[in-house]
Amino acid sequence: MTTTITLTDGSTEDAPVPAEKRDDSSPLLDIKDLRISFTTATGTVEAVRGVDLTVYPGQSVAIVGESGSGKSTTAHAIIDLLPGTGKVTGGSITFGGRELVGLKRREVEDLRGREIGLVPQDPMSNLNPVWRIGTQIDEALVANGFQGSKAERTARVAELLGEAGLPDAARRARQFPHEFSGGMRQRALIAIGLASRPKLLIADEPTSALDVTVQKKILDHLEGLTAELGTAVLFITHDLGLAAERAEHLVVMYKGKVVESGPALQILKDPQHEYTKRLVASAPSLASRRIQSAHARGTEAEDLLAEHADESATAAPDVVVAKDLTKVFHIRGSRPGAHTDFTAVDSIDFALPKGRTLALVGESGSGKSTAANMVLGLLEPTSGTVQFDGKDVATMSAKEQFALRRRVQPVFQNPYGSLDPTYSIFRSIEEPLALHRVGDRKSREKRVRELLDMVSLPQATMRRFPNELSGGQRQRIAIARALALKPEVLVLDEAVSALDVLVQAQILTLLNDLQAELGLSFLFITHDLAVVRQIADLVAVMKDGRIVEHATTDEVFDNPQQEYTRDLLAAIPGASLEIGA
Amino acid sequence: MPENRYEKAPRPGQGHYVAAPEDVKVGVVDAVSTDEAPSSMWREAWREMSHRPLFWVSVAMILVVIVVALVPGLFTSQLPRQGCSLANSLLPPSGEHFFGTDKNGCDIYTRTLFGAKASVLVGLLTTAFVVVIGTVIGAVAGYYGGWLDTILSRLTDIFFAVPFVLAAIVILSIVPSRSALAVALVLASFGWTTIARITRGAVLSVKNNEFVTASKALGMSRAAILWRHVLPNSAAPIIVYSTVALGTFIVAEATLTFLGIGLDPSTVSWGGDLSAGRSSIRTNAEIMFYPAAALAFTVLGFIMLGDVVRDALDPKARKR
Amino acid sequence: MLWYLGRRLLQVIPVFIGATLLLYALVFLRPGDPVAALGGERGLPEAVQQQIRAQFHLDQPFFVQYLYFLKGIFTFDLGNTFTGRPVSEVVADALPITFQLAIMALLIETVFGIGFGLFAGLRKGKLFDSTVLVLSLLLIALPTFVTGLVLQIVVGVQLDWLPVTAGRDPDVVSLLMPAVVLATTSFAQILRLTRTSVIENVTADFVRTARAKGLSRGRVVNRHVLRNSLIPVVTFIGVDLGNLMTGSIVTEGIFNINGVGGTLFDAISRGESVTIVTMSTVIVLVYIVANLLVDLLYAVLDPRIRYA
To answer: pTM higher than 0.90 for the full model?
Structure first.
């Protein structure tokens, strides 16, 4: 078996090799057997249990793991920024040959920013809302010994912002964080991280809160910039695809330990540890590629897909049809009379065939959730119609509309907001049955048990409360609740987006099984094209309230017609890697 | 083509490492824990509170005050006006008069015990009124929004602009009878604004939750959603504020009575006794100690309880 | 910023009218005829009573009376008290004293409240923090008049450090004790609020970012923790001005100060409607204006409000 590796996106490879020749034969950062504990009310919890990690000068390394794996904790320990009661209890961290564990406060302060920079995770909360962007970069310059007058610093700040890819930097520097979009804030944070030219940049999920196309642009830019400056980068990410694409060396963490580490592609192609295997198998971006390659080689998979596509094209009647659907919001301005009309959804048409999945894909602000809410009857369309089995919802009587509620049910994104925390699981799942007067109390309990079985949760779960369950479990409950009234259509609004990869894969499998078993139709709202590949039959790509491309999943992935769709596809982390096995 | 970074040979220390399978056991993804007893948010808050000594201290303090208020006879065989005689004026503490006697020769110990009733009654009644008025106005404003919200919020602003003790002074100087009920109603008439604002804020943040949207998608009526989902989830800040406010209202009543416009002089109350004792502040300041201490004890009980309840119910506080 | 200011001013008008109308209604709906009661047992001659009624517009319908009153407020022509002294003069006498008292109290509570709160918040869970927390609860539980009496007895009578009462034309020294009394409850509340807010901000993401930049601890605390913690404190001070105003009624009563509160209290015991409603209106007006100022300060501190 031969392996060919190609980089479809070669642009980043042209980054110039740094002029100065450094000694890069000895590690820049060397972590040995690092242990970190947190003290809680119930005792000590060891969050990191013996981690080894090596980063060479100018190299990019990624730590991959799910939430709670200890990846961020490890990274924060390097610059002594452990939260709360966190403490390094063993092992060593050497940086440029110098031991960092046990440094004095002032010594660490000298190190931060100047030697090691940080680009934090959430651009919304990592800038102080009360200071101008420029001030916050200026602070970093002053703290790290930038010599120069105020005017020189102002110029330098603008230069740094421009370097981070922010146009009109001098003016932007005088603005406040709330005047910036997420992507712009992330660029400002990159400017801060690189302000004093550190040798190592820790990038803690630097783009996970951003739209994929923005994410790609920023990561490309960061990659070019650090290559130019010769900065080593330590990526912290949950996304295996992203890690493999951006780093040459991968460290996979699970429950505070390194389960596998090594050259990025080798791990991706030939995972050895059970956990890494699961991770590779579940990563949506990688999964889609596998189907693609199988498709290309003309195996069974392709036949299956073709068969499937065939079916959807001919047999299934449409259960939901949206015609010329439009929603205009009136937005009140901050000053009197400053009303603006915002067209969230702009005359879109789509049809959801019975027993199939239609994915509405788009980035934030594309209008996909507004469209979903109109299908759910939660928002009144400004114009256009939503039809169920050929009947216009707007013309239905109140009674008919109430009856229709049983046929269309939603599952939302936020696993922490979708269940009433004051309701037991039983009450949550039973509520739709009680409201629609289905059966008596006894038969309803039977149905709740049945539903819990359906979503593969133990029946005893019904006596528990949402705060006792994980995100994935809550999402299962939300699905059980949505299924209680035996609906025909489920509107899944980013239903798996907030979940860890493995859990996400589980829920997607569950949804697939339920669809086959119950003949459900799914309207699947997502920003994540990679997931679409795993679940959807049809795709409608939305941008600025319009559907720009509407076709079968295969067509969209194999032969995208629109520039925007191609951008979206290219932005899927790991999309630039192609492994022909 | 430039050098491909993926084809470089691994550097020292960066070879392919795999942890031994027995070293890190890969668990079942997302298993439900079955060992612990089910626990709701409220039960968890209770568990949190019951571990704090301050909680039990404040509960004990409040219980003592309430028992004294209900049956002061348990602790004294006298009545507050019984055996008052000017001949006994300003006696020092003794076996017969634990705290001594006041100017009228009444037993201070007995009067202090009997004073609890007025304070507790006004505090409880005012809080009850305020919670009802404030919750209704705040919930309706926050939940239904639109012009209702505009009107109710303005109304709240107007009542808020008149400090409630000032309003109480003005009103109480008008009303003929100043029973505990009357004083409570007067305090409540301008005291409801904070709770209305708190409720409105809580309702606003709850009503955009996805579980509320899910109930809408089930076809549940707006009123039912407000009652079954929004209000129960807005309860925590209301409970916290009410506990603290109860203490505040007791202070307000005592203050007004001290100023001579609170409870009728015929009612035995701490504020009244303090007011009476004030005339001998230069000579016999100690007689004011007991009602003042009782008052502070009571208020402290409620304020401490409110503090503990806040820590237990506020998820932000709990994380810390 | 200008739009924000304009919007806030527009919101104040209905609040002012509503609040004064409420007060006016309350005072004038009181039973009994104040004019008839003026002459004591014998009463004034009917003609004199008529004249007084006409002078105070008491023969007009309620709403007209209210409009006359509003006009009076804005022209500083508030008529005379029943005893013949111009109400505006009474206000002019009382207001500076109360202002001085309130500003002293405000300074004491903010300086010490923020200082102690910051210190406790940065040392969360340590001895200083726990002690301060318990003591602050005690201070909140103590009614203003109790604190006042205790200080009078201890500092005034027993130690004889400060004058027991302030009297006419009080100076800073004689106002010190009343100011401390007035400030106690709010001091404890500001302390607790600052502490909570500091604890919250210390763990905020942007503070971590500031530390990661390499800022020294002092700068992180000053520019990121303290600065951001002031925002909720400022909001509280706005609300608290109401407490200061009503607290002044009690405090001025105890310390015998002829400020707004003291005058108001005297007027109530004499049933002097015009003075009551004027003094109450002054308090409400001061309260509303102060809240407006606090809102502006809030906007200065928090750019998100400024540009909203």
So the answer is: no
